């Protein structure tokens, strides 16, 4: 699989949605896009940030009339449905389904015309930039996509190429491999559900071990491994 | 759609084409429609009814001479597309008519009397739900009818010698590539072999991106807006202008805009472009902004 990566930089005032990210430094967004043909697209977007900054974008996130996707000077002619599927103080996740596309100059909908087998996309956004990763099986048409996308950008948007590489590693909040093994996950889930992490603890390690039918030392070890992996993964993602 | 501000003798609207589909689809060689895409796979997915497919890699280039197609080859190609020297030829294609403009430029260079570009190209046609067809199109082969050698209008083409001679003169170079190509950071699009040993631009060249010629819907900007694009970069109608890009196709679009739409007096397309200039020994090159 190849990763074709480029960055689009927005001038202030060029895009209403991006302006929020420019004004509010705590905001970060990561989205996965899938597109199988030029008539529809799915978007899973996770926006994180300080609670007051997130509250300020809530309305935009759910506004089906706002075109958050077009990179050209014209709005998409398509139907948009947006659902919020996570609403926490520091994160929102939305699921958007764009369908009945007559035209829409969203990166994925431009790209899928060059990759008829379908394409996956990851997009991260903070401040004035949106970085795109276009994930394709074959790099044959990447050059054409480069020329086409760069030629479609609206005034106030600048294109810069980052890389085209065979994908060897993947770091993503949305799809991060947690590194937790199945048996560790089972213990961790039981510990959370039974209140082991509450203050004060609602269950002791001995009681948890009994419930799970495992030796205390095994439960203790698996719990430590699982929390260690989570802590490391968290710090890695934050850096 | 409002009437085009440009003469129909060079630029026709999609409506103009759709009103004449029966003539384009007819065996009579009076009208022919040609689709020339960067991405040659697009045609097979659906094309304007009656449009003949042109493959820029094989039809518009001479592999042997590493040059644009020669006059004899072009006569053959046109004849095989059912085109005589009296045919009204309309070209269109993807990426806002990159290669359609390039073919227009080649036909004008060799002297086909009546060639026009369909405004907005393939993209506008598809987006606005004009009719598409997947039927194969092969009009009866004809004799083109007149020799295309020597080229009828050599004044629209610049060679490397012309470019070298123009450096340091009042001639204005217009580089239509992306800023990152102009600055010399990129010598070829990712994954493509249209590369050069060195990056950068012709000394003194102005960077006016090709897409600045067109509107978001891919049709050409109206005359005043188009003129403003060039005026804002200090390019005036009376200037002697040489345009170039990477392989001479995007610059054909800019040549078309300046020479055919705006009627600037002296505009040449340097079709050797950066794949030639950036690979030659000792040529003067500037990098950066």
Automatic annotation (TrEMBL), chain A:
InterPro entries with a match to the protein in the record: HTH_bacterioopsin, HVO_2928_N, RNA_pol_sigma_r3/r4-like, WH-like_DNA-bd_sf
Keyword Transcription attached: yes
Domain HTH bat-type: 183-231
Keyword annotations: Transcription, Transcription regulation
Pfam families: HTH_10, HVO_2928_N
SUPFAM superfamilies per record: Sigma3 and sigma4 domains of RNA polymerase sigma factors
Signal sequence segment: none
Domain HVO-2928 N-terminal: 3-170
Name of protein: Helix-turn-helix domain-containing protein
UniProtKB/TrEMBL annotation, chain B:
GO MF annotation terms: transferase activity
Pfam families referenced in this protein's UniProt entry, alphabetically: Rhodanese (PF00581)
UniProt entry keywords in alphabetical sequence: Repeat, Transferase
UniProt xrefs under InterPro entries: Rhodanese-like_dom (IPR001763), Rhodanese-like_dom_sf (IPR036873), Thiosulfate_sulfurtransferase (IPR051126), Thiosulphate_STrfase_CS (IPR001307)
UniProt keyword annotation of Repeat present: yes
Coiled coil regions in record: none
Domain Rhodanese: 27-134, 167-286
SUPFAM superfamilies linked: Rhodanese/Cell cycle control phosphatase (SSF52821)
Keyword Transcription regulation tagged: no
Name under which the protein is recorded: Sulfurtransferase
Organism: Halobellus rarus
């Amino acid at each position: 699989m190849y990763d074709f990566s480029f960055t689009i930089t927005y001038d202030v005032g060029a895009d209403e949605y991006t302006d929020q990210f420019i004004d509010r430094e705590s905001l970060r967004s990561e989205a996965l896009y899938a597109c199988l043909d030029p008539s529809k697209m799915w978007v899973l977007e996770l926006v994180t940030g300080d609670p007051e900054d997130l509250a300020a974008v809530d309305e935009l996130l759910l506004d089906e009339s706002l075109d958050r996707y077009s990179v050209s000077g014209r709005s998409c002619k398509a139907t948009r449905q947006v659902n919020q599927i996570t609403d926490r103080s520091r994160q929102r996740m939305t699921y958007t389904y764009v369908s009945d596309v007559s035209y829409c100059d969203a990166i994925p909908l431009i790209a899928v015309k060059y990759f008829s087998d379908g394409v996956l996309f990851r997009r991260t956004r903070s401040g004035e930039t949106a970085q795109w990763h276009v994930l394709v099986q074959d790099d044959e048409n990447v050059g054409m996509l480069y020329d086409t996308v760069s030629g479609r950008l609206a005034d106030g948007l600048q294109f810069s190429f980052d890389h085209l590489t065979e994908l060897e590693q993947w770091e993503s909040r949305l799809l991060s491999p947690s590194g937790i093994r199945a048996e560790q996950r089972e213990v961790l889930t039981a510990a959370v559900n039974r209140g082991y992490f509450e203050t004060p603890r609602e269950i002791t390690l001995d009681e948890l071990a009994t419930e799970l039918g495992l030796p205390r030392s095994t439960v203790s070890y698996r719990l430590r491994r699982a929390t260690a992996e989570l802590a490391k993964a968290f710090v890695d993602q934050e850096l | 759609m409002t009437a085009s501000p440009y003469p129909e003798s060079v630029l026709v609207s999609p409506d103009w084409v759709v009103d004449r589909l029966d003539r384009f689809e007819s065996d009579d060689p009076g009208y022919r429609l040609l689709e020339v895409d960067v991405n040659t796979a697009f045609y097979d997915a659906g094309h304007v009814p009656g449009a003949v497919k042109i493959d820029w890699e094989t039809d518009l280039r001479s592999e042997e001479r590493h040059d644009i197609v020669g006059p004899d080859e072009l006569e053959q190609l046109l004849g095989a597309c059912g085109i005589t020297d009296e045919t009204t030829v309309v070209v269109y294609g993807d990426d806002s008519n990159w290669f359609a403009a390039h073919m227009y430029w080649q036909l004008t260079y060799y002297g086909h009397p009546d060639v026009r570009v369909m405004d907005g190209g393939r993209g506008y046609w598809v987006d606005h739900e004009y009719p598409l067809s997947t039927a194969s199109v092969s009009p009866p082969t004809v004799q083109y009818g007149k020799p295309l050698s020597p080229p009828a209008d050599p004044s629209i083409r610049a060679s490397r010698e012309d470019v070298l001679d123009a450096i340091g003169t009042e001639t204005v170079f217009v580089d239509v590539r992306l800023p990152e190509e102009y600055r010399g950071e990129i010598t070829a699009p990712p994954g493509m072999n249209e590369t050069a040993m060195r990056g950068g631009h012709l000394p003194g060249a102005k960077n006016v991106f090709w897409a600045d010629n067109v509107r978001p819907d891919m049709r050409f900007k109206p005359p005043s807006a188009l003129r403003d694009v060039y005026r804002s970069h200090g390019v005036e109608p009376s200037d002697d202008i040489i345009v170039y890009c990477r392989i001479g196709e995007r610059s054909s679009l800019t040549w078309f805009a300046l020479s055919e739409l705006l009627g600037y007096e002296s505009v040449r397309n340097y079709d050797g472009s950066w794949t030639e200039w950036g690979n030659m020994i000792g040529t003067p090159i500037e990098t950066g902004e």
